[in-house]
Amino acid sequence: MGTRADDHRGLQLGALMCTLSAACYAGLSILGKLALAAGLTLTGMLSLRFLGAAVVLAAILLMQRRTPFAGAGTSARLLLLGGLLYAPQAALFFTGLQRLPASVAVLLLYVYPVLVAAFDWAFNRRLPDGRTIVALVLAMIGVALTLVPQSTASVDSVGAVLVLCSATGLAVYIILSERATRTAGARVGALGIVLGAGLSFTLAGAVSGTLAWHLSVAEPMLVLGLIVIGTVLPVTLFLAGVGRVGPTGASLLSTLEPVFTVALGAVVLGESLLPVQWIGGGLILAAGILVAARATPAAEASPTM
Questions:
Q1: Where in the sequence is the domain holding 182, given as residue range(s)?
Q2: Torsion 37-110-50-21 (CA) sign
Q3: Per-residue confidence at 78, pLDDT binned at 50, 70, 90?
Q4: pLDDT above 70: residue 200
Q5: pLDDT at 203 over 90
Q6: N or C end of the chain: smaller count of CB under 10 Å?
Q7: Do 260 and 23 form a contact (C-beta atoms < 8 A)?
């Protein structure tokens, strides 16, 4: 039987894991910006990112002597979730990211916890409580303030719509993936979903003639960073953290992601936010925290971006 000191250390380790997961997810936006600026195609970059992540996750499961196969029916559902829901959502986000500062894009994306609560009510008839209603109002005000024109130029409206559509798709995906990931287990579920997304981007790139893997091979460190820092590490760290601090604590700590993105955007890309956009971002984060404080099973199925 563990001691209180052991439990405390476990909570501290879990909190650190979830914090590092949020930092890695923040790094994904920065790496994506750099990769697109280096000339990598969207389909080529994301196909290698997800296929590479699937290989690494399968290797981890095999080293743990766990089967990566969830059964024919569940595996098919996971592949479809990744290919038909998660891949389009990721494509929308990265397309919007090309037109927006990384900090603004991630702040807008982070309305998704509030949308999850709204869709949970719409799809599953779980009535929203007062906290959720307040979160919805805060998120809408926060989005409006975040999109306020900057001193030199307005925030790109097309990019903003793309990212908000991505947030909507992510929320729908989380609601619909809850049962499949619970049946398969979080790690096996993550493997099936990223594999489905990787196959979807590979097919789309091959059909459209935009796969261009040779461009990605010319930037191996960026692609490796997208696979390891942007996908494998945040997924595994978050899942390990959930086991120590619980889904509620893990969800609350995941709201650090936009904070890390703003900081990295300033340091690496020289981005900055206006004071009113800081306020808008703070309201979006507050809305996410309000929703995350509601302990829900869906928190354990938090996806990669």
A1: 16-301
A2: positive
A3: confident
A4: yes
A5: yes
A6: N
A7: yes
Query: 95 near 204, Cβ under 8 Å?
Result: no
Nearest residue to 118 (alpha-carbon basis) of 174, 193, 78, 179: 174
Q: What is the DSSP string of 58-106?
A: HHHHHHTT--S---HHHHHHHHHIIIIIIHHHHHHHHHHHTTS-HHHHH
The candidate with the shortest Cα–Cα distance to 246, out of 17, 25, 88, is 17
Is residue 8 a part of any domain in this protein? Answer: no
Buried b (16+ CB within 10 A) or exposed e, 201-234: bbebbeeeeebbbebbeebeebbebbbbbbbbbb
Question: Based on the structure, what is the number of domains in the chain?
Answer: 1
Neighbours of 88 (CB within 10 A): 17
Q: What DSSP letter does each residue of the chain carry, written as one string?
A: ---HHHHHHHHHHHHHHHHHHHHHHHHHHHHHHHHHHTT--HHHHHHHHHHHHHHHHHHHHHHTT--S---HHHHHHHHHIIIIIIHHHHHHHHHHHTTS-HHHHHHHHTTHHHHHHHHHHHHH-----HHHHHHHHHHHHHHHHHTSPPSSSPPPHHHHHHHHHHHHHHHHHHHHHHHHHHHH-HHHHHHHHHHHHHHHHHHHHHHHT---HHHHHTSHHHHHHHHIIIIIHHHHHHHHHHHHHHHHHHHHHHTTHHHHHHHHHHHHS-----HHHHHHHHHHHHHHHHHHTS--GGGGG----
Q: Say if CB 29 and CB 104 are below 8 A apart.
A: no
279-294 residue pLDDT tens? 888 888 787 777 766 5
Closest to 281 measured CA to CA, from 246, 305, 257: 257
20 occurs within a structural domain? yes
In a domain, 7, yes or no: no
Q: Are 265 and 271 in contact (CB under 8 A)?
A: yes
Residue 155 identity (one-letter amino acid) = V
